[in-house]
Amino acid sequence: MDQSNTAVTISREGAVALVRIDFAPVNALSRPVRQGLLEAARELAADASVRGVVLHGGPGRFIAGADIKEMDLPLDEPILPDVIAAIEAIPQPVVAAIDGVALGGGLEVAMACDLRIATPKASVGLVETRLGILPGSGGTQRLPRLVGTAKAIELIGEAKVLRAPEAVNLGILDGIVEDELLAEAVRLAPGAAKRVVSALPIPARNEAAEEAAAQAAIKKGKGVPAVAVVVGLLRETAAMDFPAGLKRERELFLPLRASAEAAALRHLFLAEREAARVPGLEGVKPRAFAHVAVIGGGTMGSGIAMAVADAGLTATVIERDEAAAATCASRLRDAYAKQAKSGRLTDAVAAERTARITPTADWNALAEADLIIEAAFEDMAVKEDIFRRLDAVAKPGAVLATNTSYLNPDEIAAFTKRPQDVLGLHFFAPANIMKLLEVVRCAETAPDVLATGLAFGKKLGKLPIVSGVCEGFIGNRIYAVYRRHAEYLVEDGASPREVDAALESYGFAMGLFAVGDMSGLDIAWAMRKRRAATRDPGERYVAIADRLCEAGRLGRKTGSGWYNYASGKAEPDPAVDAIIAAERQAAGVTPRAFTPEQIQNRLLAVMANEAAKILEEGISLRPSDIDLVFTNGYGFPRLKGGPLFAADQLGLRAVLAEVEAAAKAGGVGSEPAALLRELAEANTTFKEWQRGRATPG
Ligand code: T1G
After folding, report:
1. Ranges for the 3-hydroxyacyl-CoA dehydrogenase C-terminal domain (predicted)?
2. Whose CA is nearest to atom 25 of ligand 1?
3. N or C: which terminus of the chain carries fewer CB neighbours within 10 A?
4. Per-state percent for the chain, helix, strand, coil, to nearest 5
């Protein structure tokens, strides 16, 4: 074997050969690992002095699957199916000793062994559909031989990760070893029976169970094409012999691997890991946040408190008086009772979580809080009062956060004598459900306070994204531009329904006018009125939404908005058409037609353009963070990878041309960003630009 390959090494214990995979950070099946495994398998197969083989990944690890970073490149030899075939062909018994994860290709490798034993904390799963692909190295053929076709449809179709005990129950693993896993594997190897999974028959099929599993997987798959493909593959190949099934798996795997959807999902996987890396925070320790307090027990405050309780922490919610505190307590009880009733939680867990939250009107309860999150009314005078009081009662070193969406958190920080302890934590409603959390770094936020915001978000199971201070932060600022341009399209000739349909066919669950109706049009209306005096007269202003509000059409809650809801569904409304026609006339616009593609490209381009401005200003650390904000907070389709990934796919020259057209339609504020122009002229992408700026490590 090639001695310079340190990714895979062989050692001996008597007649047993231990093959160890050691490739940071997670033992992915990168090329050196595949090469090492292939050589080890061939070498050991030919070595008559070897009576048994143990395959392991060192303490705490097995194999995390194929290398996601290699998937943008063409396949490289040796390919994994060949490596796995070589492992399965070893004539001596081979034991997989699994500690940590065996995911994707990792489980496929393990299933090529004769015996699989694991520590109790190990976990296994064929999770490929999460990445928009299917198991491409025999997983779709070996797993059904162990668990049956219906169960395989469920496990692969839903990308389930199983804890070791459950995997033993299903027959995927053969046993659990509490301690000394490796010693036990060595003891078992020489006498273990050869049990070649690919030679096993597929257990008797159950058509009804397969159908149920298929439907459930496709429903949960949210349109990821790989789910339907793999479900079809499992059913189709259940009647084939192993080599024919394997061939079919390969045929369906390759186009998925090369698909735009898979590239988008890989991009988002890596983006999530990248987002945790914040320059300047290396080695900075977060402060404590075991006891959290929330100021304001309204919809947002209650949702935040629930997110805190769901994560196992305790929360105090401060309300203005005892009556309001009691209302908040009953709102929380109801919310958890509803979750229990729907089967999401047991009654006991719901009660436990409810008990972790204490609504009160007593500000003295704040003295013990490590982290205080203000979620009160969006009014600077209200925030001023709260932060002055917080400054007086919070213990030294407590982190003070504001959940403001639009007010300037630097101004809020200045109400205290400890602006270094202040930051923004911008949750998205419903705060206990939505994954996105914008962590807003103010001018004076201390590094360990920012680190606390990130660690707290992670503890809550959120995706924390750092934003600088600007109007609307990353998400709402870009969203505002997107919405404004959608209204320009309507005044220029598209109907609200056409715009929404174009967005829905792009992959949004709902178009933006339907979303507006759902959230209510009055909040934005109030904001427009507040800003009327300071608006740049060079910015084009579309008054259709104002006319709707003036007519009492505030959205779903009033039965009408951009649509009419008399039938229970969003229906186009002639009254809206009349308002639009009148506004077009007043603006001197001759309406023209837009194709769905024109609408999609226009709206994507203006998002990318505003995002480029945000990057230039240093408000966001990197393009991929912006993609995460939109896919996790604004319903941007994950299969498109986010607005900047999608803009890259469209080509930045085309995007710039679109932005130039949009600038003519929009006036001041819609000008092309210098960064976008620069990237387009260099014929490069946001992704390349990010790569070039990446901080080492
Ligand atoms: N390839 C490359 N890098 C990976 C990786 C992978 N599969 N998995 C993780 N990393 C990197 C990650 O980017 C991060 O890097 C570091 O490892 C730690 O990850 C043929 C085709 C393994 C459970 O989908 O689920 O097999 O940011 O922060 O919370 O059929 O990562 O430090 O530079 O997530 O401890 C199937 C994906 C592939 C597994 C660890 N496998 N990974 O979680 O740490 S497809 C997967 C995970 C396949 C075959 C098919 C998790 C984890 P950096 P982390 P973690």
Report:
1. 472-565, 599-685
2. 64
3. C
4. 55, 10, 35
ipTM attached to this prediction: 0.97
Q: Which of 175, 107, 103, 137 is nearest to 252 (CA)?
A: 137
Question: Residue 696 pLDDT more than 60?
Answer: no
* pLDDT given for residue 2 in this prediction: 67
SS3 127: coil
Nearest CA, atom 37, ligand 1: 64
Rg (CA), the chain: 28
Question: Does the model's pTM come out above 0.80?
Answer: yes
Q: What separation in Å is there between the alpha carbon of 28 and the centre of ligand 1? A: 7
Phi then psi dihedrals of residue 620, to 5 deg: -115, 145
Structure tokens at 394: 């919070």
H-type alpha helices, 238-259: 242-257
Nearest residue (by CA) to ligand 1, atom 30, is: 135
Secondary structure letter of residue 651 according to DSSP: -
Reported confidence tier of residue 697, pLDDT bands at 50, 70, 90: very low
Q: Which residues are catalytically annotated?
A: 108, 128
Q: State the closest ligand 1 atom to the C-alpha of 64, by its place in the atom list counted from 1.
A: 22
Amino acid (1-letter code) at residue 460? L
Residue 695 scores a pLDDT above 60: no
Ligand 1 shell residues, CB under 6 Å: 25-26, 28, 64-69, 80, 101, 103-105, 108, 127-128, 130-131, 133, 135-137, 139, 270, 273
Which DSSP symbol is given to 561? S
Distance CA(130)–CA(369), nearest Å, equals: 38
| Calpha distance 285→435 (Å, rounded) | 23
Q: What angle do CA 627, 631, 632 make, to 5 degrees?
A: 115
> In which band, very low, low, confident or very high, does the pLDDT at 275 lie, cut at 50, 70 and 90?
very high
């998400």: which residue's tokens?
Answer: 475
Q: Compute the distance from residue 661 Cα to the ligand 1 centre, in Å.
A: 41
